């Protein structure tokens, strides 16, 4: 499936990212995030977090006062001050290494549940990882995004080669949706019900027809009326995006039936060709539904310059797109796709079309230290949430 060069497109073959990497990697020690750590200064971006000198409050010998200790200026604390959700995705091979960082900095956990991972054999479900991560997220007061219930680009071989009839495939799809949703019933989780509908070689479209999307959403709505149901796609964040028209058509159809609660925008961006902020805001507003940025990252494989310059360019894009989300007034969820550069699928999977050892797409470097992109996001949240 071809992708527009301006964007990094969907997370193709994401299932294999859930398998162990070829060589085990030792878990690095997370570097504590200092409250007043300044962002690196460059010619390309402004100082994101200037150092502030605190002035001691006057005291009295008769009635001393105690100044409350402020909360650390983490992404999570800032976002929660204005009811905003800043999230990141878990991949199976990385979550033991990054859980403390995720719990400190983010208040939403994205959990991948592709069918090849959760139903590798007919009627044999493996939901332990999903349930464990979701329960831990709820325990630490984080929202949960389950992604995806149905995606034609991740189906196991038994389904792909099963020669099922239309009725049989509908029942398989329904059973899969119901089984994955059942453990989270009533917990107000967000579900990507269908991801990237009608892509090339879409087995659900080929066997069931275009209405498989409607059937999937009807099934999910019946399974848990309290759940938030969204449709998710790639390159649908600008008016002329490759998948914007398809996304709008699906949204309008499902809205008319009362089956959809939001639209998901993947936003895997090429750092050398970022989208126009005004276009992104206008496109978000055009859907007429709450918007969820579900898989954001900025791939630097095509960005020239030294590391400081590349990271500075990336920070500007992170800043601009988070601002677009907030300024649109329809977007309240911004989910970074993975957390640390060296664990990203774009750096660990050579089979992917946009793989590069220098992709560096996330807000944290290989040693889990915050990059300028992190401070850019923190600056945006600080400006809008305090």
Describe the structure.
It contains 13 helices and nine strands. The chain has 386 residues and is of the alpha/beta class. Helix 11 runs parallel beside helix 13. The longest helix has 22 residues. The N terminus is likely disordered.
- Count of DSSP-assigned helices: 13
Write the element-wise H/E pattern from the N-terminal end onward: HEHEHHEHHEHHEHEEHEHEHH
Strand order of the largest sheet: 1-2-3-4-5-6-8-9
Number of extended strands: 9
Taken from the alpha-carbon principal axes, the silhouette is globular
Low-pLDDT stretches: 1-64
Radius of gyration: 21 Å
Helix proportion range: 25-40%
Major sheet, described briefly? 8 strands, parallel, barrel
Mean pLDDT across all amino acids: 85
Q: Which band does the percent of strand residues land in?
A: 5-15%
What would you call the structural class?
A: alpha/beta
N- and C-termini, Cα separation:
43 Å
Question: Short summary of the structure?
Answer:
By secondary structure, this protein is of the alpha/beta class. It has helices at residues 75-80, 95-105, 115-118, 128-139, 157-160, 166-181, 203-207, 212-223, 244-256, 277-286, 307-328, 345-348, 372-385; strands spanning 85-90, 108-112, 143-147, 190-195, 228-233, 262-265, 268-270, 291-299, 331-336.
């Amino acid at each position: 499936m071809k992708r527009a060069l301006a964007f990094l497109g969907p997370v193709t073959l994401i299932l294999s990212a859930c398998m162990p990497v070829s060589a085990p990697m030792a878990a690095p020690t997370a570097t504590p995030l200092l409250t007043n750590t300044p962002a690196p200064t460059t010619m390309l971006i402004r100082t994101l977090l200037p150092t502030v000198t605190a002035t001691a409050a006057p005291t009295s010998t008769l009635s001393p006062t105690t100044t409350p200790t402020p909360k650390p200026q983490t992404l999570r604390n800032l976002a929660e001050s204005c009811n905003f959700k800043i999230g990141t995705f878990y991949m199976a091979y990385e979550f033991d290494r990054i859980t403390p960082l995720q719990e400190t900095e983010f208040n939403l956990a994205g959990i991948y549940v592709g069918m090849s991972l959760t139903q590798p054999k007919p009627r044999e479900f493996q939901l332990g990882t999903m349930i464990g991560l979701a329960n831990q997220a709820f325990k630490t007061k984080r929202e949960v995004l389950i992604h995806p219930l149905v995606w034609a680009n991740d189906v196991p071989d038994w389904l792909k080669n099963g020669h099922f009839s239309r009725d049989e495939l509908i029942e398989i799809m329904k059973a899969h949706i119901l089984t994955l949703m059942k453990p989270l019933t009533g917990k107000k989780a967000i579900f990507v019900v269908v991801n990237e509908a009608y892509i090339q070689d879409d087995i659900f479209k080929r066997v069931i027809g275009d209405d498989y999307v409607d059937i999937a959403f009807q099934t999910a709505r019946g399974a848990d009326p309290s759940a938030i149901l969204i449709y998710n796609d790639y390159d649908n964040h600008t008016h002329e995006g490759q998948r914007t028209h398809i996304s709008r058509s699906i949204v309008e159809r499902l809205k008319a039936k009362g089956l959809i609660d939001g639209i998901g925008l993947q936003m895997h961006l090429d750092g050398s060709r970022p989208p126009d902020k005004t276009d992104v805001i206008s496109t978000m507003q055009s859907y007429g539904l709450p918007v969820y940025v579900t898989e954001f990252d900025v791939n630097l494989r095509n960005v020239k310059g030294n590391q400081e310059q590349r990271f500075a360019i990336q920070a500007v894009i992170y800043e601009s797109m988070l601002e677009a989300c907030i300024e649109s007034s329809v977007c309240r969820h911004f989910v970074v796709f993975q957390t640390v550069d060296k664990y990203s699928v774009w750096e660990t999977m050579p089979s992917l079309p946009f793989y590069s050892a220098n992709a560096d797409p996330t807000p944290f470097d290989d040693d889990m230290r915050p990059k300028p992109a992190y401070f850019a996001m923190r600056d945006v949240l600080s400006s809008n949430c305090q």
